[in-house]
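To illustrate this point, what follows is a protein record of this kind.

___
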Amino acid sequence: MNARENILNAIAMNQPEFIEIPVVDSSVVIQYDDVYAQFKTVLESIGGKTELITDITMLKDQLKADKQNGIFVINTIAALGEVDEQAAFLAASELEKVEKAYVKGTIGVAENGAVWIYESQMINRLVPFICQHLVLVIERKNIVDTLHQAYEKIDVSKEGFGAFIAGPSKTADIEQSLVIGAHGARSAVIYVIE
């Protein structure tokens, strides 16, 4: 027997005992009196912004102004007007010039300020990560207390890709100095529809 086989046999003989995954009772985990207030507090503490609006159509004028200013804007929300379907076919080298992206989220999480987005909502999975400024839209009724509850409501196997996004891109890896926009969007504004 060679050294490789000895190592693999030793690993096979020293496996830990199988333990069932614990069942989490989501009724006894964290609960907030006002999930939107908690969502807003956490999101703003990590560099994002949030605004409560009464109707998604309030963003139509903002999108129109963005497009008229000549900046590269991608809209993935049908309720705001024409969806930029061509973005699905653009390569990273073409998308790197995206200044602003409008994306509808599925669910928000109060405990960490994250928003779940399915790939189909992104149109192109690069869009929310490569744009300079990210605008997310969710409904207030779709904000839950914890990630446990969020996973109960989303179907992670529904599509090939999805992501939780919490605010703008940030890192503090280098000398523990916080840098916003290090790997992705420099700003993230989440509009919550009342």
